[in-house]
Write a structure and sequence with these properties.
Largest sheet: 6 strands, mixed
Strand content: 5-15%
Number of strands: 14
Radius of gyration: 41 Å
Low-confidence stretches: 1-9, 34-44, 53-63, 73-78, 107-112, 141-147, 277-281, 533-544
Helix content: 40-55%
Distance between the termini: 70 Å
Strand order of the largest sheet: 4-6-7-8-5-9
Shape: extended
């Protein structure tokens, strides 16, 4: 363990010193400046001298300055030290003060104690110093020697309450990690064949695919000590703390071997070295160097399996990824159609569903969703059903929850002019009709003109399929469908509007990839021009390379423009050919606001639509 003393932050020390100086200054000011408290302190000898100066023969205070002070009320409280009880002066003075309504008290002649004023002045300073010491001990975990201790938590099966049966949609990944659990439970089956369990396993995948859930399931199934920590827990403002925590964590792990150490979001500490603006050696790199040494250094690290998760494998240091540290890299992908259906079954275990809920249809509608998205969808549907005081969750609740997740909250009370509603209806009808005419795009699921969220005045939704490759004809049909709204507006109203801005952006991206990346230009041929390089100072930012000439760039721009122009003309021609169908769909949308796929088929049932392929 690192025993170097930890210095408090300079800012905190400066503030504390400043406060202490202010308090000391106030102490000196109060000690030197005369008090403005309305009271007088006189000794017995002072009283006698006052009476003699006033030539009072009798032992009394009448006619003296003291009497005038009492009479005018300038001083309502004072202290007289020393007069013995029973003396004539004591009696007369007491009587005069009581008649004037003055608060008074007598003290001993030796004077007041200096201890109480000193405590009153120094108490604020003592409190400030005590508070500063308390905060520093809290920041340092109790003392300077515990600040470098690891923050890894020992996770038990009761704490996680998750097992492999709670993980769905990633069966191949599950088989890979089950091998670790099998080794920990029965190592002899592997050792007799000379096999060695991987020292490190890196889970890589998009956010929300279940990497952390998989680690929690391993913790619940392994039956060995499971230490969990986040990558950000290693890095602190103090130099050397991260490396000390790495050392301490592996010392605890070795003492508990065999065990598993799980590092979540390892990219927080495992980024490539030498990529910062400030040079090579900083606190994060020192922590990474210590992690590299502990995972596969001079000392053996037997019995400790390191499990890590990240969605940024491109920024990790190569030394961290090599065999011997992370021997196995497991990709946790986005679930496919069957995987999404299996995940939905897991998340509806404790929910009451109506008989009309079709999980297969929901899985098809949620193409591209990950496990976290599907869990959120089920929860939103349950909340909507509860808000409507329903006993069970119906398919309409899931439909509304999905629309909320994709496009935002419905704004049925939003005021839209009738002319704008007509434009929106024809815009979405153009998309829906082209979707029917271009079967490669898949069936229409829903078309609506109900505004949602911010800026979504309507949408046409398709039932997407999980496709792992796309042909040129598919992309051309997608380009044509994207221009359906703009083409319908120009046919019906004879002018263009801003409603097709998102469609134009999507179409331009598709055409650019077709020419630059996919080599689908007949004039350019099979060439890839989209060279990319990652800037080490910008991290994930991608900087386009200008490796080709200006002439070639101009030619690429012309090819992109030609693709877009041909797709737009094709969309416009199809909508002109089936203008009657376009009008009918638009009128139904204006009347009903939303149409699903079955209702759209019923609207167009008596019209002879010939799909183009």
């Amino acid at each position: 363990m690192d025993r170097r003393p930890i210095q408090p932050p300079r800012t905190l020390r400066s503030i504390t010193i400043l406060v202490m100086l202010v308090m000391v200054g106030l102490l000196v000011f109060q000690a030197l400046w005369p008090s403005q408290t309305p009271r007088v302190e006189l000794t017995y000898s002072d009283l006698v001298a006052e009476i003699e100066r006033e030539n009072v023969e009798e032992v009394a205070i009448r006619g003296s300055r003291i009497e005038g002070t009492l009479r005018t009320g300038e001083i309502r409280s004072f202290v007289v030290q020393g007069p013995p009880e029973g003396s004539p002066l004591y009696v007369d003075l007491t009587q005069a003060m009581e008649e004037a309504g003055v608060v008074y008290r007598f003290q001993e002649a030796e004077g007041a104690s200096w201890i109480l004023p000193l405590l009153a002045y120094s108490l604020p300073v003592i409190l400030v110093v005590a508070f500063w010491m308390y905060m520093m001990r809290r920041m340092q975990g109790g003392s300077a020697f515990t600040f470098g201790q690891s923050r890894a938590k020992l996770v038990t099966r009761e704490f996680t309450n998750v097992s492999f049966k709670d993980v769905a949609g990633i069966d191949e990944v599950l088989d890979e990690v089950k091998e670790i659990v099998d080794y920990l439970k029965d190592p002899g089956r592997f050792v007799r064949l000379g096999a060695k369990i991987p020292k490190g396993i890196l889970l890589v995948g998009p956010p929300g695919t279940g990497k952390t859930l998989l680690a929690r399931a391993i913790a619940g199934e392994a039956g060995v000590p499971f230490f969990s920590i986040s990558g950000s827990d290693f890095v602190e403002m103090f130099v050397g703390v991260g490396a000390a925590r790495v050392r301490d964590m592996f010392q605890k792990a070795k003492a508990s071997a065999p065990c598993i150490v799980f590092i979540d979001e390892i990219d927080a500490v495992g980024r490539k070295r030498g990529a910062g603006l400030g040079g090579g050696h900083d606190e994060r790199e020192q922590t990474l160097n210590q992690l590299l040494s502990e995972m596969d250094g001079f000392e053996r690290n037997a019995g400790v399996i390191v499990l890590a998760a990240t969605n940024r494998p491109d920024v990790l240091d190569l030394a961290l990824l090599r065999p011997g540290r992370f021997d196995r890299k497991i990709a946790v992908p986005t679930p496919d159609l069957h995987g999404r259906e299996a995940i939905l079954k897991v998340h509806i275990r404790e929910k009451k569903l109506a008989t009309d809920v079709d999980l297969a249809l929901l899985a098809r509608r949620t193409s591209g969703f990950v496990g976290a998205d599907l869990e959120n969808l089920c929860n939103e549907a349950a909340l909507l059903a509860a808000r409507r005081n329903k006993d069970r969750i119906g398919i309409e609740d899931f439909e509304e929850a999905l629309d909320r997740v994709l496009t935002g909250l419905a704004r049925k009370g939003m005021y839209i002019k009738e002319e704008e509603r007509h434009r929106i209806a024809y815009h979405e009808s153009g998309h829906a009709l082209l979707n029917k005419l271009l079967p490669r795009l898949g069936p229409v699921h829903k078309v609506t003109i109900i505004p949602r969220g911010t800026g979504v005045l309507g949408f046409s939704q398709r039932l997407l399929e999980d496709k792992y490759w796309t042909s040129k004809d598919d992309l051309l049909d997608m380009l044509t469908w994207t221009f359906g709204g703009r083409a319908a507006e120009e046919i019906v109203f004879g002018e263009q509007s801003t409603g097709a801005a998102n469609d134009l952006r999507e179409a331009t991206e598709i055409a650019t990839k077709m020419v630059v990346e996919y080599g689908m230009s007949e004039e350019l041929g099979p060439i890839h021009l989209g060279k990319e390089r990652t800037n080490v100072f910008l991290g994930e930012e991608i900087v386009r390379s200008e490796a080709h000439s200006e002439e070639l760039s101009a030619f690429v721009d012309r090819e992109i423009r030609n693709l877009l122009t041909r797709a737009y003309e094709r969309a416009k021609g199809l909508l002109l050919q089936y203008r009657a169908a376009l009008d009918r769909v638009a009128q139904e949308l204006l009347r009903r606001e939303s149409l699903d796929g079955t209702e759209l088929d019923a609207v167009l049932s008596d019209l002879a639509l010939e799909p183009t392929g």
